[in-house]
Amino acid sequence: MSINEDAYDVIVVGSGGGLVGAYVAASRGLRTLVVEKTDRVGGTVAYSGAGLWFPGSAPLSRAGLGDDIEEARTYLRSVVDDPSREALQDAYLAAGPRLIDELEQNPWFQSFVHGPVPDYYASAPGTSPTGHTVFPPPVEVAELKERRALLRDSLPTERFGFDEGPVLVGGRALIGRALSAFLETGNGELRLNTALESLIVEDGRVTGVEVVSDGERVRIRAERGVLLAAGGFERNRELREKHQSPLTGEWSEGAPANTGDALRAGIAVGADTDLLDEAWFVPGLVHPDGLPVFHTGTRGGIWVNGAGERFVNETRPYDQAAHEIVRLHATTGVSHIPAHWVFDRRHLDRDSIGGPPDEPLSPEWLESGALKKADTLEELARLIDVPFDALKRTVEEFNGYAQTGVDERFHRGETPWDQMFHHIVGFPADPRQNFTAKPAPEWPNPLLLPIDAPPFYAATIVPSDIGTKGGLKIDTHARVLRPDGRPIDGLYATGNTAAAMSGRVYPGAGTPIGSSLAFGYLAVVDMAGSTD
To answer: CA 75, CA 291: separation in Å to the nearest integer?
Structure first.
């Protein structure tokens, strides 16, 4: 073992959202090291659309939406409904605009832009139909040069070999820009293939990390502090079974290396935890390879449970829809895991499945069994093992709603979020699936097409996630807290390594990554002290 191999001002563990915090530290003249467990940077952020829920930020003002922080504060207070998190909410709301202002001063980040994604709780006070989400601009691969090879691939590329082409968007654009800005400060260093083993504590203060780097165990000192930004524990089967049974992580869409290393290291030095039973749940459409892909909203067809009955607005904001699957499975005595997405030829012709609307159905969907096909509803009911009489009643009820355009049971199509799916398919989870939707002019509500045009189909929906959201408790400076509420000197956490400021809800597009960046920023400001 090498002892005190080197010393830095700041060590950041993880290279997703923490990479922006690393840039903020390095830009202040702090010698900053980023350690990354894998051979690529980006973590789960690289899979994302990179939305940042930042009310009051400059991109919103440039879009003519003004300073909306107080309305957003009212909204957060209402949907989170947890006084113990109000101070964290206030810190978050203050940090977002400041961080954007700072990043936009660096030519690598350029100007963020507002994306009109409605807040997820349409009836809450302070909600916005245009939302508070901002996105990074795309970046050309040629601009990144050799750094392009350091970026984690997008999920469509890793899973399906999708060619992103010469321009990177979403999370890949954010990570590529942040990496370049960080390295070009002259104060930043990146070590790949370097896994956190433990934290070093001296006289009650975290003073560094012990890591395994390319097979060698080393100790590295941090003069100002250690920022844990290594994602959640979504890929740790043992922890998922302990805290989130029956979910065990195999359906997660978090980065494969997110096994809770930073969480365990924090707990080992006395950190308190919260929300370990929670995740950023999303419905997952099971693809022919047997694994789910984030399914943001359903334009056609219905979801039914093991009793053959519809149970939710299928276009409800994804975190809410997936939570409902988990809740009903645990409380009703009726299987909701998996759920069955039932639709017909009309929907398939309009929207296809698993890709662009004009993309023909790949044979592997049927060959693999990911999609089941039947000439009659009765035959389909047998294939998915649900009672035919119940499925028939459910479909007939839904077809009545299609005629009137009003979903009297679950009100699909009535909120700004739902209505966004009148026009697009797949936004905002996967840039590959942000496609212009085909209209349905013969029906009063394009989200309520009747299911009466054989053949009939059924796909599988499971509760997936884009990361766990429980972790180490932090304060408004992102300092990690002990069970008695005192901070652990020198230790900070952000992103999914920390317990979410939004508690058990998902307020709007960009809350997870926005939280990662905001609290990473607050951590660095605290570490920088008089140098800020």
So the answer is: 35
